Task: structure prediction
Amino acid sequence: MRFFLYYIIFIFSIPLALFKLEAQVVCVGEECSNIPTEYKILGNLVEPVFDRIYTKGFLRSMGDNAVLQNLNSNQSGGANVSRYRVGLGYTASRGEEKARDFYYENSELRTLPKAGVAASPSLSFTVNLGEWFRGSSAKQWNLTTHFFPYEFGEANIPFVKIRNTEVNGRVFNYGAVLRYFPVDSGFSLGFGLFQTNQDIYLSAYDRRPTQFRIDGDKRRWMGQNDLFYQSRITSASFDLKYNYTVGFLSIIPGIGAVYNHGYTAIQATRFAAISTMENPDDFSSVPSALGIRLATRHNHRSGFGYGSLGFKFGQGDFSFNTEFMAGKEIQSLNLSLQLQF
Result:
């Protein structure tokens, strides 16, 4: 039995390398000789999976979601902390820009989510710099840091439920905000640095053979599907907040802006046995397999503005806080419990 090995590489780049699209296909087996090399198999697969679904706008939205969620996890608030404060909270973010109708040649990955979502718990610590440095002006500064390495699976991520798909990943976000409080003004200025790290893995296998076409001929294939999403974004932020307190309730509106430098990337891989050209149900007489790797990456070199509205319910040294942040087509909500000491 003769075996053929076809290895085709296709690379497509948008100018300025802001959106890079790559694809690789490997075909092994005698049936590969019936696949015309001039046929644009890569175009048929790359175009629906990435150009129509994971557009550069959607990748940008996914990155902005993750950044806004990281900013909101800081829990710096808008009131001057006299000494120290710790907080434990949970933050979620969601974007309105969606991926377009998804289909991966009728494979199990057709169930992938179409909206960018980010969520994780966070632990924060705030210190009044007057505790560390002498001088009355130091008491007008707070430093708030936060972090929370969070590894997850499908069982503990309520925002991702994908049928017949294994889900796992890791979120490791951290940051620091230096906040200045002019004396008795109610206003505060915040200057922040953040690092947003996300890794998400999705894996599924076809429960039954599914149909695809090569140059008009119907074929069937059956195999394994994997998708990997990653973001690495460094951000610098500036915000202005106003704290208005009535009794145990504080209302804290604000505005801010953030500049991002980093990337979001997606890679999809499929390995599948293919049927013969004569019989779409025949996988055994001429064993052949097709491997496809598709990858795209969006480089973040831009920023966005956002508005915020926070509420603080205080009782003694404890307080319950919630803060809503919204940018263009993205929103984030944080809930936290804090203790001053």
Q: What stands out?
A: The two ends are 78 Å apart (CA to CA). Helices lie at 41-51, 56-72.
